Amino acid sequence: MNGTMLIALPKGRLYEKALRLLASAGVVVAEGGSSSRALLLEDTGGRFQFVQLKPVDIPVYVESGAIDAGIVGTDILRELESDVYEPLDLQIGKCRMVVAGPDGTSLPYQQNLRVATKYPKTAGRFFLSRNAHIHIVRLEGSVEIAPQLGLAEVIVDLVETGRTLRENSMSILDEVAQVSAKLIVNRTAMKMKAAAVTTLLKDLDRIIYAHT
């Protein structure tokens, strides 16, 4: 790691929200935008460099020290059980991880359940806490259709507005966790680049909690 702090930004639904939050804190990403072809972007103040990555890869890069810090959802952090510092909840990308099933059904914790999800570890821990016996069906997409096709009785997935569930005639049966994006920092970078990390945290904290 060189003297400049390298920060990973998540591709997808959090990207623009992360850019707006950083800009509000005085960190404006030069040539920002999801259409940029540059591998590394810089902020206009020259303090940071940024790289866009798939959210699931960000904790891996940060934990290894290849990248100093990153922005990523707690859904991914809990699933990967990442060994990183989590100094600040950014209060963006808020949603819920839930158990959902077809409309009109209940959640029979006492029965064997097939659970379709992109979050097998998180789902496993949740159902274990309910003393439920489950079989995880790991899927990478379109989990909502699994009960309709007889692949699983219920799903564990993220819900923001609930629209996708309604469109697939499904209802929320239980809540697994609240989810939001966090700033994560590599443990070595937290010490070696303490001044840069502390300044960034103060700038973001000032914006995030200005009205609380």
Give a description of the structure.
Helices cover about 30% and strands about 30% of the residues. It is built from seven helices and eleven strands. The chain has two domains: about 5-95 and about 180-210, Periplasmic binding protein-like II (D-Maltodextrin-Binding Protein, domain 2), CATH 3.40.190.10; about 95-180, D-Maltodextrin-Binding Protein, domain 2, CATH 3.40.190. The two termini are about 35 Å apart. The protein is elongated. With about 210 residues, it is of the alpha/beta class. The protein has a six-stranded mixed β-sheet with strand order 2-3-1-4-11-5, with helices on both faces. A five-stranded mixed β-sheet has the order 8-7-9-6-10. The longest helix is centred in the C-terminal third of the chain and has 15 residues, at about 195-210. It has helices spanning about 15-25, 60-65, 75-80, 120-130, 165, 185-190, 195-210, and strands spanning about 5-10, 40, 50-55, 70-75, 85-90, 95-100, 115, 135-140, 155-160, 170-180, 180-185.
The residue fraction in helices comes out at 25-40%
Tally the structural domains: 2
The DSSP helix count reads: 7
Q: Say how many strands there are.
A: 11
Globally, the shape reads elongated
The separation of the N and C termini measures: 36 Å
Q: Which sequence of strands runs across the widest sheet?
A: 2-3-1-4-11-5
Structural class: alpha/beta
CATH C-level name of the largest domain: Alpha Beta
Q: Uncertain runs with pLDDT below 50, 5 residues or more?
A: none
Question: CATH fold name of the largest domain, please?
Answer: D-Maltodextrin-Binding Protein, domain 2
